[in-house]
Queue: 4 jobs
Job 1
Amino acid sequence: MSKAKLYLQYENQHLVLGPQKNPFVRLLKLPWPTYVYDLDIVRERFEMMKSQLSGVQIYYAMKANPHLQILKELKKMGSGVDVVSGGEIERALEAGFVPQDMIFSGVGKTIKELTQAIKLEIHQINVESIAELRRICTLSRQLGKKASIVFRLNPNVDIETHPYIATGLHNNKFGMAFSDLPELEEIILKNQDILSFKGVSLHLGSQMHNLAGFREAVQILREVFVNLQKRFASIDTFDVGGGWEFLR
């Protein structure tokens, strides 16, 4: 991985931003507080990530920044989008994404939001609990639609980040324990007509400063993934989540 660039710097005593070194001076006369986004930075960072993850589909977490122009630019570059609410689903559609471009994550999905996602036939719903999987079954049967789901599993791995944004330990509220797998598999087997079981997912948290915990979690989850593949022919997805500070 190449060393991170300084996108905000001084050149000839003027503050400039981004690969094109756009001057800030023209913004100084604006009479209101202003957020400044440089799409050249967005493009450059996305392409750098894409070059390092050959053969991997990238999904942008909309919660990071839902600005319409940023979303449209990422769509043009081939990104999918990770959404966590009905509002974000609508925003993604407005930006030009289609349901097959979307992953629906989040621990607080409402019945209304799950209904919306199932009706749209969103590419992937990350299931956070046994109760949520049962809820998806009920809604899918009522709607006559098949839901594509993966299990978000909690590998009980710590990472080097602030404890408030770490999500990979058993005392966190995110994801399911490996001990839940027998009951989850039983639900899948009883509802194969309305569920498309695609694989597993993890997300250890945000702003990871090194890869040690991430590597450990992937190795743990890979064994689970391989064992599940032996029992479910439909499995083809290994979702490793995000939060990689080293890519910023």
Job 2
Amino acid sequence: MNVKSLTKVSLNLSGLILLGSVLFYYLGKPGIATPLIILFFVLFLIGMNSIELLKGFSFTIWVIAAATISMIYPEYITSIGGYQTDNLIVPLIQLIMFGMGTTMGIKDFAGVLKMPKGVLVGLVLQFTIMPLVALSLTQVFNFPPEIAAGVILIGCVPCGVSSNILNFLSKGNLALSITLTSFATLMAPLVTPLLMERLAGQFIPIDVSTMILSISKMIFLPLIAGIVYNRFLGSRSAWLNASMPVIAMAANVFIIAVIVAAGRDSLLSMGFFLFLAAFIHNAMGFLLGYWGGRLFKLNKRDSRTIAIEVGLQNGGMAAGIAQELGRAATMGLYPAIFGTWMDISGSFLANLWRKKPVEDNVLDEETESDFSSKKVIVAKPE
């Protein structure tokens, strides 16, 4: 049996096992059903390679699998050999940000000189739409204070690198996307704490200076270190460029698993409402980001680019901030849910726009070629 046949068999078996697990749950035998769910994910992840359409969602499936296993067996995730796994969240975020920096160069920031209006509009929309929508959602759903602070937190962080990937797939303005992500990330150590104090201070105490130092240590310094490394040693470390995407994805999956396991009880009590809030938050980011761009007379291609930048947030950064504040199980819960959902919705939106290009959708061939050759780091539960 060749590899292709094996993957098809795995996919078919995964479907049968999923049906079996549902049946055993219905019969009141969760002890049999839960191991079958884990087996389903294992076989599905192997089998999905037999269908071209599913290959692009492999990271999302890994995230869903990690979250599901964390809900079933939280005690095996929150502590390993007596070591509290949430202590690894910040170091892993620092590793991811360093990896992000190794893919960036000075020309990623020089883009502002070529398209100042698009960058300015994108940054204004990024740091107004998502925070204000988040604040509105906390009022509508009346979440507990620390959960509400987490909703606002995901709204106050910048866009993540996954927005660059999805803009590439959707044939958006990639140069604008990369420049926006770069500037928004560098602005985060100052802008995010100020927004949090203003909007989330009513829910939990926010120490702006402490948060600035925390984000700088977690995001800014590793990012700058990565950029410097790329400038002077990047050409000599092909192995690092090849391995960092895999390391970053594994780190993201682990972070989500830890946060979901730690916040399992909160998820069981209000998980549906958190998901509904994430769905609305993400959709409003896409919708208002696009029409905000059109309002400022940007063309359709640039407006699509900004929509993706606004709708997708850096969930990894939000999780790290929540951990630094000692509230990973509460503040970090919504970012984990939002990060998982935005990957799914963003992938579908990118594929839709790719199939429906606009007239002004002419890619900069040099930028596209450069991006294709990069080993991009996806920074989210990004």
Job 3
Amino acid sequence: MTYVILIFVAFFLVVLAALLLLRWSDQRDDAKEWTRLAALQPDSPGHFDESLIAGLPEPVQRFFRYAIAPGTPLYPVAEITMNGDFSLGSKEKPDYQPMSARQILAAPQGFVWQLSLPGVSGSDAAHWTRFRLFGLLPVARFGGTADHTRAAFGRYIAEAVFWTPAALLPGPGVHWEALAEDRIRVTVTFDGLEQAVELVLNPDGQPEQIFFMRWSDANPQKEYRLQPFGGYLSDFREVQGYRIPFHVEAGNMFGTDDYFAFYRADIESVMFR
């Protein structure tokens, strides 16, 4: 009996050590990617003026005039902290859980989103999704595929539109167009990827809705395909010359009867270091 107990204890310790090593490796990856993205912030950025948007359609100019004050340093990288609700269920049974998260957003290069829910924590990034129960047991671990990278690209390009608009000023790989007086679209190409994102504006140029076709497997068949994604932006506040939504809710199948806002975030801080 003692021998069996010793074997069990040894096995438990080996498994525990392996889980701790895996968590350490994941946290090292998070930190390494966070540092890489933070280093993309320019030391001596240019400043916003109307010449940068001259020639763009009027609704696009209206959006940038709303989003960035004249003379604002053009910082493409932001660090964001947030809380809110995250659904672990479905539209019929949402099972919302209180969330807290911190994120670095550096479009078009990448992002890291570190999430904490009751009993669940982990991170989402351009090349991985990794979440654990009680800080140890892996419950979601995937990435490193073309499908995952394409899906992630859609997410962080869309978020850059309203949280880091300086990153999407017109230039190589960034094309803006007006679809109507109150609707504009940006198409971003980078490293073989392409994503179009649409905004619905109010008369002042404030974006109220965001919409894009996202490469996703969030469907009953669990097959990657393009499907509607989007949500609503509100509670705009000024941060270092940028007008940024401090409340965002979003989900799959936006614009259809199946829309479900599984993500509802209230921003605590946005920093352009």
Job 4
Amino acid sequence: MLVSSSISAKGLRLFTYPADSATNTGIAVIVCPGGSYCWHDMEHEGREVAQWLQSNGINAFVLQYRVATISAYCIGYRVIGLGNKYPNMLTDVEDALKYVYQHADSMHIDTTRIGVMGFSAGGHLTMMSYTHNRTAYKPSFLCPVYPVVTMRDKQYTHHRSRRGALGVWGQFNKTMRDSLSLEQHIPADCPPVFLVNCVDDPIVKYHNSEMLDSALTAQHIPHRYIQYRTGGHGFGASDEKGTEECRQWKNECLQWILNLNQ
């Protein structure tokens, strides 16, 4: 029977989906839903993802990290107030990793098998959970799905995510844009990465994932990149959204995680 619970402590909002004791693989995944750093798709990119992982013996944790909120994006209140922006969301994923590490024994989780998976802006945060991590609690694998990657390339940047992450004025700061452009910050010790997107994505241009693939290749990071022709954006773990082609990503990703952690 699938069960879940929520954790809300010191600003951390985490929804837990522990694997059944009979099927527990010892693997854990922190899930970061997308939403342009302005909201969260807690259904297709949150709950459904967690239940899919949980049903396959993987302990899942859906992170409701801090975002600008839709109202902040629309009315720009952060011009006169701080609001939520970088590094708030990075702090949240760091805190989530710390929580999972510190509760690993009681949940029968192997601390060498803790990963992060995210979608769209959540895919950007997924990569930052290692590339920008300021703590000792780091993921051992990463799964960005149709991720936002660059914040410096005028042609391919997803501007709403950049504004959500950096704020009304920060989005114009070249140093900040460069600092959050993942293709510039892949370290030589980056853990294995599973990357997937669709060429017909109308929201985040597919070139973002190609940039990340190239950066990972340049650093000789073990990774698998799958580029589907169709599927668009925002399908998450849905059995209805996207296309039959792109919905194959779940099986491919699951096998990659299980094989990686054997």
